[in-house]
Write a structure and sequence with these properties.
Blueprint: H1 6-12, H2 17-48, H3 52-74, H4 80-142, E1 145-147, E2 150-152, H5 156-172, H6 182-196
Antiparallel strand pairs: 1-2
Helix pairs in contact: 1-2, 2-3, 2-4, 3-4, 3-5, 4-5
Length: 205
Amino acid sequence: MLFRSLGQYFNSRGVSLGKAGLLASIPLFGGMLGGLTAALVNDGLMRLFPTRSHARRAIGLGANLCACVAMLAMVRQTDALWAAVALGVVKYFADMSQPIGWGTCTDIGGRRGSATVFSIMNAGGNFGSFVLPMLFGLIATRSERIVGDEVVKNYVPVFTVAAGIYIAAGLMWLLIDSTRSLDDLVNGERTIETSQSPRFPADVD
């Protein structure tokens, strides 16, 4: 949701509307490359690590931390073009965790619950898409300065908070265990029910 208002960000830096549109497309291109790269990296790590959970965590944690570092580097850029390139790097690493998240939903959901797990993840994303624009808007509004008769926008606090969110997102991957699925839970419950079911005389050989 942060990348949807990049046109306004670049426009606030004195860039023309047409050039702002071009610069705002660079992060989207970076996100596309990130999604493609994630699949290749994931396949390689799954052969390297003992479990797929370790591979998922490594990409989810590492990619989000790299996105945080790139975001903090972006706010220090004085040139709009280099700021756009840095945002492309941010989006590259941020979108690496998307296909990994979809794969993790399949791991946890198993044969019967993948759609349910994915819908829960998607609902959480939609909630963030609802809340964060209001939060970022409030931060951006409170960060404005009045210079003469002109209102000067300051997006640095917004991007700094976004960098912190990437850290939190990366750390959340440490809590996810994709080696345990809903299929295991269902099979375990069936095993318990079978072992605890009463045996009638007709069942005895």
